[in-house]
Every structure is written in structure tokens, then in C-alpha cells.
Amino acid sequence: MSELRDLREWISACEKEGELKRIKVQVDWNLELSHIAKLNEERKGPALLFENVKDYTIPVLTSALTSEKRLAITLGVEPGTSMCEMARWWMKVITEKGLIKPKEVPSGPVTEQVVEEDAIDLLRDFPVPYIYPKDGGRYIGTAVFLITKDLETGWVNLGTYRMMVHDRNHTGVQIIKGKHADMHFKQYEKAGKPMPAAAVIGCDPILFLCSSTLVPAQVSEYDVAGGLRGEPIEVFEGELTGLPLPAHAEIILEGFIDPKDLR
Ligand SMILES: Cc1cc2nc3c(=O)[nH]c(=O)nc-3n(C[C@H](O)[C@H](O)[C@H](O)COP(=O)(O)O)c2cc1C
After folding, report:
1. Binding-site residues, ligand 1, Cβ < 6 A
2. Distance from residue 159's CA to the centre of ligand 1 (Å)
3. Which residue's CA is the closest to the ligand 1 atom numbered 7?
4. Which end of the chain has a smaller Cβ tally under 10 Å, C or N?
């Protein structure tokens, strides 16, 4: 099983295996970054870490899990393991060893820098790429996940839904009807309350893998990821939302989805 805990350890592990390339020349967030990423992906290239994004100091990672070898590194199985064998391994670990609930910790490296609502400016502060010419805006969320909680049972869901920046302190989130966050949202809508939600951008990729995989309702992807890792995922209580947030994430946007403010 893998001992990876965060994105930085994953980047090092991929680099050692020749599965990640650092791009040091300047790349424009405006269509250039996404175009390079797409061409690289079509050629089955490595994960790319764009370290010099025009106008920004924060790097952007693309194509994290687009190869069998990088999936194997993420799961901590032998490189060379096929997709089919990895799927079997996943089911065997989950059924034989079981799920592992997250462990609460007081805080984590992600809280080293906290920016409050009045001070945040998403497009100024983060290198959000403009991906396709016909997109309605710049997408801060692609390989990310949204954390929400069932109002009645307390079940915590992690789901990958794309997110486009709307303005300085708002992002849209495209939750298709029937997805688990939509089930949660309907409860809040009925209760006339804004739904607490947290978007995690940059994290141990096993959490992204679980959040974009079909996991049954009332089962938390945190427990599945813990089971696959063989140890609990460390979480802390979000100050604004009270949601359990991954301690070893890079960026977390904490906020609310207000049924009275849909755009
Ligand atoms: C890169 C990526 C982007 C995705 N974008 C969306 C999206 O915008 N909206 C959506 O409903 N599902 C999207 N999905 C699919 C969901 O992540 C997937 O159905 C997942 O199981 C949803 O979680 P849930 O079952 O907890 O609702 C995406 C998946 C991936 C891998």
C-alpha cells in the first residue's frame, strides 16, 4: 500500500518514476496551458507541472491520473499493474480489509495561510486556466472535489464537479441532477438553508480518484480512500462550514451554496 499523504509526495514519487515533467518556461493561463496539456495527453505524455504560469507564482498540475503507471503510483501497487488488476485490487482491499474512517486532527498545513472572504480575489490570487475558447469563463475546478454533508444522517460526500469562477468570491459548480451533492442540496433547499460546501483543489490524488468514482450513497469517499491507503485520512473541522476538510490539501475554498442565489 502507498504511504503517500499529499500532492507534494505524489509529485516526488511520479518524478522519480519519470512520470512527471516540470515546465519552467512561461506558459499563458489563457488557452496555451490547456492546449499544451491536451496535446501532451493525446501523446500519452507525463503529468505536467506548470511552474511558471504567466501573471502568477502558484503552479498548475495537469494530467495527474491519465496513465496506468500514475494510477499504480497513486494506489501504491506495482508499476506495470494493469487497469483490470488495479480494479480487482481495489475491490479486494475494500471488501477484505474494510473502510477506514478519517482521523480528526486540530489543523494541517493547508491552514498555514488563511484568506478571508473580503480579501479573496479568485482570478487575481490563483492561476485559473481558461481552457476552451467557447468556455463561459475560467475553470478553477477540474480534477478537484466538493465536500458536502447530508443534513439528516451526517454522511460526508466527496464529489468531482467542475467549477467556473463567476466573480471575485463566487464560483459556479456543475452538479448534475441525481449526483450525491445534488441529493444534499435538495435537503437544504427544502429546509430553506444555504448548504455548506468546500472545494478542494490539489490534494493526495487518491481522494480525487475516489471522489470521481461511483461510491454508494451514505458511504463517504473519505472512508474508501482511508481503506485503500490502509490508514485514516487526516481531517480537521472547517472554521466556516464545520465540514471535515483534508489537512494535507493545497487549496480549499470554504463557502455555501445558497438555494436563493442560483445563477
Ligand atoms: C475530471 C472530471 C470532471 C467531472 N465533472 C463533473 C461535473 O462537472 N458534474 C458532475 O455531475 N459530474 C462530473 N464528473 C463525474 C463525477 O465526478 C462522478 O459521477 C462522481 O461519482 C460524482 O460523485 P457522487 O457520486 O458522490 O455524486 C466528473 C468526473 C471527472 C473525472
Report:
1. 142-143, 157, 159-162, 174-176, 179-181, 212-214
2. 6
3. 161
4. C
